[in-house]
Amino acid sequence: METENQNYCKRHKCFFIPLLFIGLFVLSAVVMLLWNHLLPMIFDLPLITYWQAMGLLLLSRILFGGWSYRKHFEHVGHQDHQDFKEKLMEMSDDEKQKFKNIWKNRCCK
How many CB atoms neighbour CB 32 within 10 A? Predict the structure, then answer.
């Protein structure tokens, strides 16, 4: 028996994959337009083609990461976030003030 989450994934996979490719093609066009509009004037670099822009986009993804899946990060840290919220709600006013002061000292050095 399939869970509701598995059914949701199967139903929406046929929409997600084409959107992924559309996004890649649109972002490649944006990279090409921005490169060709700005960099030749600023740094005297040559114009690039659409496929070179797509290559740059993919290379930057490989080298620098990014485009991380938000759902993945929400799932990984979701329980920790809930536990932290509950812990904060159970603190007294004095404990909350001590907590704020500790983090203020850590962050503002």
Answer: 20
Q: How far apart are CA 68 and CA 32, in angstroms?
A: 22
pTM of this prediction? 0.54
* pLDDT tens digit sequence for 68-96: 655 555 555 566 778 888 888 888 889 88
How big is the CA angle at 79 (ends 73 and 87), to the nearest 5 degrees? Answer: 130
Answer yes or no: do 32 and 54 share one domain: yes
Phi, psi of 45 (to 5 degrees): -95, 160
DSSP 91: S
Q: What are phi and psi of 32, to 5 degrees?
A: -60, -45
Domains of the chain: total:
2
The three-state secondary structure class of 77 is helix
Torsion of CA 94, 99, 104, 72, to 10 degrees: -140
